[in-house]
Amino acid sequence: MPKFMLSPVLVPRPSLSLHPSQGVSLGDTVTRRCKLPQPAAWVRLLWYQNPTYIEQKDKTQEIAEFSLTGIKQEDAVKYQCQYQGLEPAGTSQKSDPVERLVTDHRYPPPGISLRPKEHVEMGSNITIQCWNKKYGAAFLLHKDGHSAPIQHQEPNDGGTATFTLFGVTPADSGTYRCSYRIRSCCLLFSPLGDNVNLEMIPRTAIPGDNEGPSRDLVAAVSGGCAAAIVIIIVRHCLLFLVAQRRRMQSDLRPGGQGIKWL
How much is the average pLDDT of 176-185? Predict the structure, then answer.
């Protein structure tokens, strides 16, 4: 009898989300929510790249919630979830990992500076520096109105991270702050530091720039008029000379009046 290869059933992957997604401090209560594309026999919450699961929920239809009360330093890590499907049967792949960022208010906030100061021209390059030499392992740049950091940067040997905004536009206006990941620890971060405000001003016009085209036009028109006047004068002079020559020739002919002596 011929042998047939059975293809494995592909079970759709779940998705994992954290609630709240940000602004979590040590001691807070959080929920990790695993959303299923189909009913499951069981759902497991796992640490990232760790085969050992943390917790399991049985017979789940759409969403499995895993609550954590009094979050601790060691809980600031990456998580994934996985499930065993009913129809079709099979174990899914793990979800994409999500990071549980936690703030520890026992650490001092970082310092921050903005160069050039506050009011800057559109199109300029702006530098924001953040620093904390003692604890900062990596720095995050936050902008008010954004749910996630907009940039991250490693510090130099002096504990300072430099963020550069190139060719700023009005969309870059706003309030900026920094935080840092605490050295030799998980996903534990400092509180947000003081803020700096970035405001746009129109680029300063170079004197004469706006008048350039019109001034060139005036110069061209003036030059054209002058040339026309010169041509007219030369033409009249030529006509005058021609007329004078004809008169002289007429006077010298026989029967003419000839030259009159005074």
Answer: 92
